Every structure is written in C-alpha cells, then in structure tokens.
What does this fold into?
Amino acid sequence: MSSRTHVSSSARTQFLEVKGGERYAYRRFGSGPGLPLLLLQHFTGTLDNWDPALTDALAGERELILFDNAGIGHSSGPVPTTVAGMAKHAAAFLDGLGVGTCDVLGFSLGGMVAQHLVLDRPAIFRRLILAGTGPRGGEDIMHLEKPSLAKHLQDPANKGYRVLQKIFFTPTPSGQAAGAAFVERLIERKEDLDGVSGPAVANAQMAAFHDWERVTGERFAELRTIRHPTLVVNGVHDEMIPVVNSYHLVEHLPNAVLLTYPDAGHGSLFQYHDSFARHAAAFLSVSSESAVY
Amino acid sequence: MSSRTHVSSSARTQFLEVKGGERYAYRRFGSGPGLPLLLLQHFTGTLDNWDPALTDALAGERELILFDNAGIGHSSGPVPTTVAGMAKHAAAFLDGLGVGTCDVLGFSLGGMVAQHLVLDRPAIFRRLILAGTGPRGGEDIMHLEKPSLAKHLQDPANKGYRVLQKIFFTPTPSGQAAGAAFVERLIERKEDLDGVSGPAVANAQMAAFHDWERVTGERFAELRTIRHPTLVVNGVHDEMIPVVNSYHLVEHLPNAVLLTYPDAGHGSLFQYHDSFARHAAAFLSVSSESAVY
It folds into this structure.
C-alpha cells in the first residue's frame, strides 16, 4: 500500500461565482507535470465523497479539481434534472476557473456528465476516465427499487456513509472489509464539511438517470464520435450501473481501454484505490493519441 | 517503444522425450526473478508464431517456455481432438521438464488448454494470463465459415503469415499496419524454423474447439472453482473468439481482471505488444493472492 499524504482531507473548500450564474463549491489541490484532473461525482455525492486515499494518490502527479455541480453541497442553484443541464454547469465552472483543457475522472453520474460535456465541447478534455458509468441508452441504470439495492437503502441500520459500504461493495467478506475501510477514510475529514444531500437532490438526479437511460436516435451512435483516449473502469458485480454498460462503452468508443475488477461493485475505484490510481496515472501520463497504456 | 533484445529469434528449438510418451519441441529462454512462464499457442500456431517483440519483452524478467503440443511443429504424435487431450500433453511436458509450478500465458486455443490444465492440476500454475480465449460453453468460437473470416481464409492472395494480418487484426489502417508489422517480426527468424501446420492439425484442433463450445453441466460453473489470479485480455473486435467470451470469464472466475484493447481483434496482445508486456509483467510481479495489479 502506498503511504498517504493526507492532502485531500485538509484541502479547503473554495467558491467560484459565475457572472449571471451560480456560485460553485470546489476543492483544488495537488501538483505535478500532468494537466489538471476534474473529478465529477456520483449520485448524491458531494466533495466529501471522494475517497481521500484515491485523491491523495492522484494528487501526487497532478492538480485535482473536485467540483460540486449546481445545488450539490455548498453550490447554489437548483439541481438539474438532465445530464445535459449538469454538463452546462461543469462547462461554466471550468470556463470561470480559466481551465481551457483538462483531463476528467467521471464516476457514475459524473461519467455521464463527462460524456455529455465532451460531446458539446470536445476541446475541453484531453483524456477521459469513466468509472462505474454507462452510455446514453444504457441498461438497468440506477434502479434503486431492485431488491438487491432496496434492501440496503431501506434498512434503517445503514445510517450515513454505512449505506455506501453496502451498495458500492460486494457482500463478500473482502468486499465488505474494503467498504468499511472506505467509510473510515471518508470520515477522516472533520472540518469544512460539504453537507449531506437530501431528497430533493436525489429526486432531481434520479430524473436525470431515467432520461439518460432512454435510447434517442441510433443507439450508441454518439459514442463513435468521441475519439478522446478513454479508460473505462468497473467492478464486474456493479448492481447500480451494471458492467454491461462498460462493455457498451468500449465496444462503441473508438479509442477506449476497459479495466474490470473482480469481487467488486460500483465502488471498484475506491475498493482498489492503489491499483486504480496506478492505472489512472499510467493512462494519464501517455502523450500519444491512443488510449492504450 | 522498448528496445528489442532479439533473444527470441535466436533461441534454439529443444526436445524433451517423455518416457512412454511423445517427444516435445520447445524453446526456453530469458531470465529474471519471476517464475517460468509457459506459453500455450493458438490454432495451428507453432513455436514460430509467437511475436518476438512480445517474447523479447517478457523474457527480460523471467524465463519463458514456448511449447509445441503433440503433433504441432516438431513435436511427435497425433494432434488431440479435445482440449482435455492437449492439457494432458502440457502436463506431461511440464512434469518431464521438472517444472513444478509456473505461470502461464494461454492465447486462444492455448487459453482453453490452460483452463483445463489448472482444473486438473491446480498447483501446476500460480497465475494465469488468458488472451483472446473463452470458457467451455462459450459463444461463436472459431466459426471460420463466417463471412467475416471466410473471405480472408479463402483469398488466395493471403499467403503464409499474411492471412494472420487479416484475421488477427482489425481492417482499419492502424489495425492493418500493426498486422503488417507483426508479420515482419515473425519472419525475422530465418533458421531452426518449426514448420507450418497442415490440414490434419487444423481439423483436429477444430474438433477440439467444437467440443469446447458445447455446454456441459451448469454453464461456467467450473470457472468459479479456479481461484488463481487471472488476467484476461482481448481486443474488443475479435472475430475469432469474440470479446463476450472474455466477459464470461471475468464474470465467473472469482479472481480475474479484464483488460480490453480498442481497434483490436484476436491478436491484440501482438498489436499492443509493448502495453501487453507491461501489463503482463505488472500482473505477474504481484505476490499476493489477488489478481488486482
């Protein structure tokens, strides 16, 4: 295991107010030769939901920018009910920050925002990492009413971050141990917290998922126009956005490598944070036009 | 690109005669801290069909053992018509050589032999790399009569190794350029050649593929008993053993990582030999029980 720098847990929340727009909360830390890496977060997740073990590792070689979309954490405004709306906010944020081109790590809902944004504004990203996510028109995306998920979400014993241990990780002893360790790392941060998302956030984001799941036009056709080098990562037992969605991504994106992890669910990048950070760094360090690393 | 050592092209063919059994042709070269790596070859492939760029790179950190199964190249005996029969020969060869435990890279048919052998003799392998292959009961395995393959196999212009450029690589300019480079590397070897497989080899091996494609018992159940760390690799556009077979492998093997390559077919490990050798070396260098690297 790598030694931790703990730079993530001490990074202060900053704010960027866009003229005529919203006031976005973000955290920016790390340094190195790489382009900045924008991190786009999962369903109901805030700045506090990034695993500090992962962000500490990534921040050793590049600047990270953790971003709260509109209405999330301390960002102002209503939560958009479409991925397109979220992508507009992410673009406004990067423009306001003066970041012309960066790399992006989009996890789950954040991976959908990254796909939408790169279609709108191809030059805004150089390389994409899409973890635990799926394409527009994907399958079985975020059906929280499924018994495999509902039993955890409706269990009153799963308070706070503990529900993530259940729904982001496999039920095996090794999966649950990794989930418990993840929760312990999330609660390392004691001050300058970003708050917890309520039902209004969840409802708006669920509307965005349902819209994203609809097939519009020729299925997956837009993926073929994204020529950016892309690394797709997933756990093979993801119950929230099943791994078949990652298969669709790499079969239709012309320049994408797939990495799947065993005994892992939606949170595979947190379960195997050492490995994921190593693969991400190797992928991001390539200067050619190929996704292959 | 890594600088080449050209150790592969100069490695001499050796022979091992098993008491009461066959006389097997093999090549053994390379050195380093790793366990020996047994290489199990594809349909009709001989010792000469391993990409020297790949084996040169792998041989820098470990000893490689390239093996001709019975009836292939200069190995004696009839070609088995089942994967089980091929696995018996591979076991007899390793036993005769005095190799108690090794790592294995099985490509295509060789990956099936590796799976069968590790089920028979779990202690014989430590770690498995399965490239361009599929599980017993897989889908669309080696249907050479498919138009996408038959048009190349029946084209008289595709003489010798040139057919491999067509069927192992994508039809894109980059895929075909990689295929042409692969063929150039194969013909680097000028002496001590292993010969070319004829129709008798092809017919026996096709029988083995057809038998392997049949579902016997509960589909994929035996995969769950292989707990060995496994790296599964494929091109997303493999026409010979489609990538869905790699998905089945990692969804049922309990301890397997999947890596897929873009713009690549059956020969993805040769197309991206630098990357593949790097990933293989990283995977093989892990000393824990986990496939994650």
Notes: The interface with chain B takes residues 236, 243, 247, 250-251, 253-263, 272, 275, 290-293 of chain A (CB under 8 Å).
